[in-house]
Amino acid sequence: MKNVLIAALICLAPASSLAGPDWSANWSANWSEGVPIPPGGRPNPYGTPDSGENSQYAHDVLRGKIHAQVYPVSVTGALPPYRPLAKVMAAISQIRSLDDLFGWIGMHPYPENDATGIYFAPRPDPAQAGPRMGVGLIETPDGTAFTLSCAECHSANLFGKTVLGMTNRFPRANETFVAAKIGSELITDSMLRNFGDATDGEIRMFHRLREHLKSVGAKIPATIGLDTSLAQVALSLARRNDDPYATPSADAAKNPRPEPLENQVADSKPAVWWNVKYKDRWLSDGSVVAGSPIFTNLLWNEIGRGGDLVQLENWFAENEGVIRELTSAVFSAEAPRFTDFFPPERLSLDRAKHGESIFNQHCAGCHGTYEKAWSRSDAASLSPTQLLETTLVNYLQKTFVVDVGTDPGRYLGMTSLERDLNPLEISQKNGIVIRAQKGYVPPPLVGIWARWPYFHNNSAPTLCAVLTRHEDRPSGYYAGEANDPGTDFDLPCNGYPENRFGWSAYYDTAREGMSNSGHDEGIFLKNGEELLTSDEKSDLIVFLQTL
């Protein structure tokens, strides 16, 4: 338990000196409701000049990737002191290094290849970078603090490559917050001084952390791999005053308002970044119908970290360039390609082409169409890898929501945020509108091969399971890191291999919020009868692996 409590204290701090002066013009993006999205999406939503590697756009993307690793909000609600907590951990816990601790939280090592291309982010300055991606250090007047950033939930290991913008399959961010609230009360000043050699300034930092955590409401996800940030925001708002800036107060923290998400399961997995460029509504349920998705997420982060929203509003006004940079990094993200990890010969071109026709007949109406290089007039001159490339993504101009019978817990939970977030002054001033939906956004399928397990709640371990009637899908499965493509990945079914020995994480679809129902009738079933043969489903999966 001590290990968990110490670990919990580091998940609460975003700050970075990278938020420096913005030297560009004041470009703007259209985040209004219903804005049409062009074919190919909008990887550069601000329209910043893009003339190559020295352009404004390239600069914004590069800095945005750094912000994704060292969270840039300097007025964050919580900054745990770095040095004394490291020493206390070594003195009273079995975890002997911070690297081990961050590994437990689910953070990934920096890639050995520190390239700044599609999959790797540039490493921050050593004075700011922690031992793993998403961990940062920030100097404050009272000492050095920990930071945790977007990369904690939005970077992942894929067969030995660390991919920024990909869903972390095993984050413990929410579990860490739950333990932090306990640990902040159990760790005393004397422990910090005697074991951690803490200074007066570091003691003050810890006191501020303890006070801010009183305004944080957190809960552990139903299973590892899911995220309860939605619940954390709602539960945290219930522990603040009911005023236009949700002002923290000791009385509200001690006597929180009733909130259904205290008990209701509304979990979902963290989203991949490379899909946002194709949409105009955000989150898996499409409930954020207007407003910058990055601005909105930073707002939610700070509510869930006990931040002061007046200070945050002022920070936003002074750091529009930082928001643009982080937005540019997220919207520019590209999905890892199958052929980056496997030779193209592992996919049959003929089967992929047949799968394309099946997809266009049964799936394109919801998930869009994908133009392939094999249909180009010069296809005969292309290499096997080039033939499999997607040349244009034609997702829907206006994002919509549809209820296909999948677990409703996540979208039902959005009622809490619609009620409490829309009235906030900071939401209204910045055009953030939340409208609870019934159903989920049928997502673009770019990089779908790398996004197992499937559905918003991870209830389908493979694409084979997605294409199986729900009553015949696996009722549970074991999950683990994708280290070895030969043992940790079922290529024909695309996902977790069945009966993989040595994995301890287990997903049980019988639990609340984790049902694997839906997405069958009216899609590949009609009146309960299969519309596709087994071979057609296999060919469809081959096509999906090329996206």
Can you walk me through this structure?
With 547 residues, the chain is α+β, with helices and mostly antiparallel strands. It has 2 domains: 2-21 and 31-332, no CATH class; 338-407 and 437-544, no CATH class. It is built from 20 helices and 12 strands. The protein has helices spanning 2-8, 56-69, 82-92, 98-105, 173-186, 189-194, 200-213, 229-237, 250-254, 293-303, 309-318, 320-332, 349-362, 364-367, 384-387, 409-412, 414-421, 425-429, 463-466, 534-544; strands at 135-140, 143-148, 155-158, 161-164, 288-290, 369-372, 390-394, 433-434, 476-479, 505-508, 525-526, 529-530. The strands form 6 sheets. Strands 1-2 form a two-stranded antiparallel ribbon. Strands 3-4 form a two-stranded antiparallel ribbon. Helix 5 (173-186) packs across helix 7, helix 8 (229-237) packs across helix 17 (414-421) and helix 13 packs across helix 20. The protein is globular, with a radius of gyration of 23 Å.
